[in-house]
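Help!! Second protein's tokens look totally different from the first
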Amino acid sequence: MSPSTAIRVLIVDDHSIVRQGLAAMIENEPDMTVVGQAGNGQEAIAQYRQLQPDVTLIDLRMPQVSGVEAIVTICAEFAHARMIVLTTYDGDEDIYRALRAGAKGYLLKDAEPDALLNAIHIVHSGQQYIPSEVAAKLVQRMNIPELSDREQEVVRQMVLGLSNHDIAAALNITESTVKFHINKILSKLGVSDRTQAVITALKRGLAKL
């Protein structure tokens, strides 16, 4: 296949060794070529605007600008952007946010190389690539009540180990309001105490340490 008709791929990951490994694998394919690499979401947005690749492989959690933020920005500017999330995170909230932001595919880094190459072809053709295990978590997430922005802020403070008093001070709200939000959080997450709420929030990708 000539370079002009090869699938043009942009790789976005904050680990250079991962970028280099992906680039070597993709360049080995006769119908694909790597047109650019970026180390964070900010670079991804700039390179996408300049290169306008056919398919973008992008990690979720990166410094400066996250993968989700980059996906939101790029998809808002380029309606036909074809982006595949390639990450180590499989929490249902991570999956939900990425696909809601506009990603067309979601793949874990422990996937087989053939699965990644197949995903690139499928997304390039205009279809979505969502493996069955990812789809199952997405369905599970769709059935869970969504936390409000304030509840997400409170959860992040809980994960950091802050007391109600400290959360109130950090968010400039009263302790009674913090307790109200925590009760709502426990109910929505289907747990009975703070410890379970923190574990569930971390597992689902609602917050990180």
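Here's the second one for comparison:
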Amino acid sequence: MKIVQEVSLISVGSFEESRDWSIIRTEIRDAISLIVHPPGTSSFTINPKRHGNGVKPIKEACMIALRDRFTWRLETPINYATKSPGKVDATKVIDNYLFALEWETGNISSSHRAVNKMVLGLLRGVFLGTALVLPSRKIYPYLTDRIGNYEELEPYFDVWRAVQIQEGFLAIFVIEHDQLDSNVPTLTKGTDGRALVWKFLLLCRVRNW
């Protein structure tokens, strides 16, 4: 899978120029590049069936790579000093702070909640850096209907850029397929995605992770 756009939505302070961000950015990019379909290939090919592919198997493949190859923690509960808005998909410890990553699998409302969750963490001083991964409009038609995507979220960027924080960082990674092919299997939806995850794990073993 490829990244077609990367946006620094919020960058206050020196984190974007730090070695920590350089390492984390490389790990995120590497984990995304390792998502392949069909299993055993070297790229990500999607069946262009309208709304025919699930999103969770793609996310879970990235989460496995972050956890097993780069020692990220998954499904991290966060104390926001108020009622928690929910767990974070993946986190990495940076000194006494956390870097948080969310991968969008819901609708556009879910995308707004994900960004708000991370911005709240920046405001509370819980996160030093954050990132959101979401699909481009180009892959959108082939995924679960009404999945959140970059083009729908972009008009609201000025709202989050206006948030007043002393230090913090929020990046957005936009992902897309490498190729289209109606002959490849569709990505399964819901819990059926576990089958693809197991195949991905086997691929990881072949690559000697």
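Reply: Different proteins will give different token patterns, so don't panic. The CA atoms of residues 64 and 201 lie 8 Å apart.
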